[in-house]
Amino acid sequence: MILTSKVRAMEPKMLKETLKDFACFEERFVLAKRTHEVSLLTEGMLVLDKTLMGVIEIDPKEILVDGIRKELGKTLAALLHEGFIFSKRLMGEVETLESKFQMLKEKFTGLKRSIEYIQDFLNINGEQIWREELTRIINYAVEKESTALVNKKYQADLDYQDKFYVPTFIPVDAHDFTFMGRLLRNIMGELGKGMYLDSLSSWYAENGSQIFGLRYVHFLHEHLGTTFLQGMDRLIVYTIVSETRRFQRDYGFVIGGGTVSEELRQKGKKHSQSLVQMLSQFDQAISSNYQALSPQAAKQYQLLAKSLANISS
Fold this sequence. Notes:
By secondary structure, the chain is mainly alpha-helical. It has a domain at 214-313. Helices cover 68% and strands 6% of the residues. The protein has helices at 2-6, 19-23, 25-47, 60-83, 97-122, 126-149, 158-163, 179-191, 214-255, 262-271, 273-280, 282-289, 295-312, and strands spanning 51-53, 56-58, 89-90, 93-94, 195-197, 202-204, 210-213.
C-alpha cells in the first residue's frame, strides 16, 4: 500500500526543487521499519537447520518461500477478480475499459515494486515468483472457463492445493466463472458498439473515441504478460466451439442431422416446443438467438484474436 499510492518512484533525473516531493519522510520511515521487521524474521528462518519430522524433511527457507507464494497468489487473484468487475457507473461517470485498466495498472505497478523492493531482504527471487504466480492464476482461470464452455466439471489437484493458493472466484452474475470470461464478454460487448479500422487495428465509436485496440492489448501484455493474451486467445476459440456445438445440438432437433439420435430429437421436441418452432424458421431467427454465430460476431472474434496474436507472438 505504501509503495502503491504514497511513495513515488525516484526518477533518474529531477530538479532539486522537486526532490522534497519525492522524499515522503514519514512514509519511508514506516517502510524502513517494516522492512527491518521482515529482515529479522527472514534472518531467523534462514539460520534454522533442516530437520526431520518422521521421514519428511522440513526446510525453513522452503516454508518461507511457499508462504510468500500463497500470499502473493491470493493478492493477485483478488486484484484480477475485483479489477475486472464491470459496473454501469463509477464515481458518477460511465465505467470504461480504459478506466478499469488504469486502476489495475496502478495496483499492479505498486505490488510489483513491493516484491522487487523486498526480494533482497528475503533472499528470494521475487521476479521469478511474481511471473510464476501470475501465470498460474491466469492459467487456472482459463482452464476453469474452458471446462465450463465444453460442459465439463473442473477437477482440482489436491497436491496442487497444498503447495499453492487456489483461488475461489465469487460469480458476479449467472454466466460468470472467472475474470477471464468476464473481460472477454465485456470486450465483445463494447466492440459491437463501434467500427473496426484496419489501418489502425482498433475499434472506434461514432464520436471518434477508441473503444479497443493495440493500446489496450499493449497494456495487457506489459502488465499481465504473454500468458494472459494467450489465455484470451484460447477462450475465443473455446467460445466459438461452444456456440457451434450448441447450435448443432439445438438445430439437430429439427433437421435430425449430424450425430443427433432420433430418441434425443424426439425428447427435444417434447420438452422444448418453443425451441423447435424457433429453429424451424432458422433463416429469420439465427441472428437474434445465436448472435455469437452471426458473421459480424465471428468477424469480431477473428479480429480480436488477430490483435492479440500480433503482440503475443
